[in-house]
Amino acid sequence: GAVVxxxxxxxxCKSGTSVKIECRSLDFQATTMFWYRQFxxxxxxxxxxxxxxxxATYEQGVEKDKFLINHASLTLSTLTVTSAHPEDSxxxxxxxxxxxxxxxxxYFGPGTRLTVL
Amino acid sequence: xxxxxxxxxxxxxxxxxxxxxxxxxxxxxxxxxxWYRQYSRKGPELLxxxxxxxxxxxxxxxxxxxxxxxxxxxxxxxxxxxxSATYLCAMSEPGGYQKVTFGTGTKLQVIP
Lengths: 117, 112
Fold this sequence. Notes:
- The complex is a heterodimer of chains A (117) and B (112).
- With 117 residues, chain A is mainly β.
- Chain A contains no helices and eleven strands.
- In chain A, strand 7 and strand 8 form a beta hairpin.
- The mean pLDDT of chain A is 89.
- Chain B is built from no helices and eleven strands.
- The radius of gyration of chain B is 13 Å and the shape is globular.
């Protein structure tokens, strides 16, 4: 149980284009989803937290107009990188939690490697 | 000073060895402690989840939390080549959907 999928697993795009990444919880309802970015040899950096049906909460330094997050259902959240630039190239990982209001385990997706040319 | 410190390694051990992975932290409010395993180019996989101090065992894995020293450990017994991965410690405060703070990860290589 507790499977989280991400699509696509890898994307290469031109500078200035937008890229959408999907995160799905396959066998549980995710009341909260998290989006992380991971640079090589570095830890996961939380970008934003989203609860189903409400606006995402962004971490300090993360541009909400650049990284659009939608959590429209209990099984799907999307991250759209708008007007992507080479410095946005990174490994983006989502996680999902189906907690009942207390700190709950996060289950991670397999990640999406974004390369912006 | 980072909230969570973890030696990045790499750590190389022979197959069958006991592996000890450690993290220290500075935030005394952390109550939940996790260990994740991450294979190259994959998302992290939860290995162990403990609350407050004490030990927890699951198969070849044992997690220890010493809150007085702000020190957590993961022990892997009878290590296998398939254990070769990066191990991330993570921790959070109680009370709702608190932010999880990750260590930088320790890269482990188990040599056959």
